[in-house]
Amino acid sequence: MRRREFFGVVGGATAWPVTALAQQTLPVIGFVNTGSATGSAARAAGFRQGLLEGGAIEGQNVAIEYHWLEGHNDRLPSVMADLVRRNVAVIATPGSVVSSLAAKTATTTIPIVFGVPEDPVRLGLVNNLARPGGNATGVNSFSQEVTAKRLRLLHDLLPKAVRVAVILDPGNASSTKTTLQAIQGAAPTMGLQLQILNATNNAEIEAAFATLSRDRPDALFVAPDAYFNSRGVQFATLAARERIPATYSDRAVVATGGLMSYGADLSDMARQVGVYAARIIKGAKPGEMPVLQSTKFQIAINIQTARALGIEVPSGVISIADEVIE
């Protein structure tokens, strides 16, 4: 599909070529996601819901140009350069540090609304959480901050586990570093030994699971990563094939057959990004809009997957789960 085409994701969204949209003189939002349209459909729907809450309706008073990179982060500079050249109204980057940083590098004038899993001040996206300054604001979803707790929940689910494999995305350097620090700090307190694996694309995910098949760790910890979240079906399928209990940051993976997840509600995070994008379209200045913090966190457990793996989920874990999928 040509980069300059506007294309919908799910829910019957209509496709408009750039020329038609230009004739309508609708303000354009460049929505950039490092995952896939299918894997991030719930996030895109949340973003549109947020726009709607803010009075912006796709195809009526705003146009959205979706860019799905499917793990090809090397495309980010050219995508951002094109959006800047055409002077879009807003660049939205919900759920990805690398796309948010690429947007910040590309422009100091076009408003950016990000959704990132770690401190945006430390990342250099804003100067201050209360008054960001500059051209960027957005949402901190705290996925990195809950890493240690997710490892603890995995340990609670599998108290006899000792060896835990961790799959990281080195293409998402900042998040990978933060995840690694958190998990390496927490693992010794639980008596866990870590095996670190890297993957940046579909083939490398397959290769990582081939290593797991050979080494047979007791469990798998999938790092919080926008691309990994978009590959939820692939992860759940491979984990089932290798019969390895796995934990994820995104509840959507559990809905497709993953065992357990804990993290921010990423659809709600995208909704908050959409609300802010709509406000900016109406004239609000991003530098004066405080960075929001995700308030919805959820633990999800797939009981059917647990049974298939021969895992008896402790009652204490079930009691604190926000969603138990039968």
Short description:
With 326 residues, the chain is α/β, with parallel strands linked by helices. The chain contains 14 helices and 13 strands. It folds into two domains: 18-142 and 265-297, 3-Layer(aba) Sandwich (Rossmann fold), CATH 3.40.50.2300; 147-264 and 298-325, Rossmann fold.
Q: What key phrases describe this protein's structure?
A:
single chain; about 325 residues; Rossmann fold; seven-stranded mixed β-sheet; six-stranded parallel β-sheet; about 40% helix; about 20% strand; disordered N terminus
Q: What does this entry look like structurally?
A:
With 326 residues, the protein is α/β, with parallel strands linked by helices. It folds into two domains: 18-142 and 265-297, Response regulator (Rossmann fold, 3-Layer(aba) Sandwich), CATH 3.40.50.2300; 147-264 and 298-325, Response regulator (Rossmann fold, 3-Layer(aba) Sandwich). Helices cover 40% and strands 19% of the residues. The protein has 14 helices and 13 strands. The protein has helices spanning 18-24, 41-53, 76-85, 97-106, 120-123, 147-157, 173-186, 202-215, 226-230, 232-242, 251-255, 266-281, 303-308, 315-320; strands spanning 28-33, 63-68, 90-94, 112-116, 136-140, 163-168, 193-198, 219-222, 246-248, 260-264, 292-293, 297-302, 323-325. A seven-stranded mixed sheet has the order 7-6-8-9-10-12-13, sandwiched between helices. A six-stranded parallel sheet has the order 2-1-3-4-5-11, sandwiched between helices. The protein starts with 17 loop residues before the first helix and ends with a strand. Residues 1-23 have low confidence and may be disordered.
